[in-house]
Amino acid sequence: MVTLNAMRRTLLLVMALSACGPAATAPTPSLALATPTTAPTATARPTATLPPSPTPTVSPAPRASSAVHYVAIGASDTVGVGSLDPATGSWPSRIAALLPQGSTYRNLGVSGSLAAQARAEQLPTAVAEQPTAVTIWLAVNDLDAEVAPADHAAAIDAILADLTRATSARVFIGNVPDLRAVPAYAGADQVALGAIVTAYNQGIAAAAAKHPGRVRVVDLFTGSAELTTQLTVAPDGFHPSDAGYVLIAQRFAAAMREEGIPLRPGP
């Protein structure tokens, strides 16, 4: 006969086993918890927050920063008349040969051009090129055409004003050598010739002085005897020879280097 105490003990044991049963057979976490039905977004993944790999540019930054975009404005001496090979022998071409890798060069010179004509015909193209360096040599044709020094200076002033306003270029402008020793001027009034050369050079200097830090005069007058010898003047007695173009290029190149244009040694 089962006693009351025995029944109580049996009941307590059953209750205890019932309470322990769920823990022993704990359900497996649902699939929704173990594997989310929606994949984590890209922003939740550490790699997704990293910046994309840079794509190399066509012109690496170091080369682009040192590249020079060079434009030459001028007349027959800029073209290279008098050289055995004007395409490579002109003084601008000799400078272009010293440019760093990645640079560009455009020679806009026109034989016979006056300063006012160059402003109308060459300057718009020069501005469109957006150069970083510009050379100008425009004077002797004006002098031969008896353009008044003030009118020549006004044309030069306008060219420099347009270049410095519309581009970021450093501008290098040549003045007039002492023409009294050039064979083509042997029959000229030497006093009057000297005076007109001086007046032209004063006008060039005054126009350049309006743009400090942007325009530099390349002095072809001082020590110009070496530019007017039989060796440095072409057989026509007027234009430079190849030897003359080398000397002119050297003077422009020296000035350009001093102003930070990264030309290689030469010419």
Q: What is the count of DSSP helices, taking H or I runs of 4+ residues?
A: 12
Integer tally of domains = 1
Taking pLDDT < 50 over at least 5 consecutive residues as the criterion, the unreliable ranges are: 1-8, 10-64
Which structural category do the helix and sheet elements fall into?
Answer: alpha/beta
The amount of helix comes to 40-55%
Tell the overall outline.
Answer: globular
C-alpha-based Rg, rounded: 40 Å
| CATH class categorisation | Alpha Beta
Classify the beta-strand content into a percent band. 5-15%
User: In what order do the strands lie side by side in the largest sheet?
Assistant: 2-1-3-4-5
What is the first-to-last residue Cα distance? 128 Å
Mean pLDDT: 82
What is the CATH topology?
A: Rossmann fold
Largest beta sheet, briefly? 5 strands, parallel
SSE arrangement, N to C = HHHEHHHEHHEHHEHEH
The overall strand count is 5
Question: CATH architecture, please?
Answer: 3-Layer(aba) Sandwich
The CATH homologous superfamily corresponds to SGNH hydrolase
Molecular structure report:
The chain is of the alpha/beta class and 267 residues long. Helices cover 45% and strands 9% of the residues. The chain has a single domain, classed as SGNH hydrolase (Rossmann fold). It has helices at residues 4-24, 31-34, 61-66, 76-79, 86-89, 91-96, 115-121, 123-129, 140-144, 149-166, 190-209, 242-258, and strands at residues 69-74, 104-107, 133-137, 170-174, 215-218. Helix 11 links the parallel strand 4 (170-174) and strand 5 (215-218). The protein is globular and about 50 Å long. The relative contact order is 0.12.
